[in-house]
Specification:
This protein is α/β, with parallel strands linked by helices and about 400 residues long. Helices cover about 45% and strands about 15% of the residues. The protein has 3 domains: about 150 residues, Rossmann fold (3-Layer(aba) Sandwich), CATH 3.40.50.1010; about 110 residues, no CATH class; about 80 residues, Nucleotidyltransferase, domain 5 (2-Layer Sandwich).
Amino acid sequence: MATDEERIALFVDLENLAIGARETGLVFDVGPIMDALADRGRVVARRAYADWTLFAEDRRTLTQHNCELIDIPQRTGAVRKNAADIKLAVDAMELAYERGFVSTFVIASGDSDFTPLVAALRALNRRVIGIGTKGSTSALLPPACDEFMFYDRLPGVVELREARRAEAGNGARAGKGTKQVKSIDVKDGPRDEAREPAANGKQGRSGGKERGGRSGAAGRQNQDLQEVQRVITQTLAGLKQGGADPVHASTLKRALLRKDPTFSEGDYGFRAFGEMLRSFESNKVLALGDGQAPGDPSVDFAEPTGGDQFELLRETVGGLQGDDGDVPLSGLKDQMRKRQPDWSEKDYGYAGFLQYAKAAAAAKAVAMEFDEDEGDYFLWVDEDDHEHQAS
């Protein structure tokens, strides 16, 4: 077992996180937190504090991720506002003294009352990561931590926020209609991936069972490879954001196993993890370099050649914007998937579509700005570039 990876203890102030998530229209899910921590090390302790009679709906996601539920009942007539906070702080300090191998403490709360706890843990030479929602996190807590992550910006949470913003944005524009923008009909987007195999299966049985079965199996295999490729790029992005540079194949494999202990490259037809990485390198998704050992190469994202990773975005925006219009970000991903149904920004290591669009704007593949009146980003391709692309 490797000895250089972080040992992490997670302490969740559920009331603070759950209420903060609900204020932004989300339902709290500990899964994105566990995925983000898996990129940073092994989570050796995980505890969540709440009165579970008040947060019964949140128990499922926590128990699915093996969190110990610490019940702090809110007794009638008693003042117990900070009972969960006190219990969390006491347990964290006790663990710091009793478990010297725990190198990182994660305090999942935006409450400034935990600032003294953070200071005490850092005084014991422990690294402290804070997690809170953007709208309910005190301004005092993030500067006290070694690292602070906003829950609503984590991969997985970002996707849900973008989907809901897209729905709200499309509804708002239907009422306003003030900008000269070519409309995007999300209803004509790609069909539900879970339903397509069933439909294809029916067609195959009625016309040619053997041929339909073979093509269906090949399609599922390609889909599985694409899914694991996206998991690998997301994990690589998390490792690099956590400060690991360079990232070696062995480090990446350990991070994948922390997310899914059942992961095996053999399930996808590869004899070794390096062989799987070389396959993704041939797809121009990853780039392998010399590592610390012959069988442990360094892994990085492939450099885009000729704007490959933004080409579909440019084509879609250029085709929708018309002569003098621009295209709203909401619904744009659906339009790209009409042209290429299996496309995803995760293939390139981006946490969400907004991050991908901002990267495209930074690379000058498209232009983008935020419209406060519309409450959405708008993209366009410069006229000269658009004409050059069309020619």
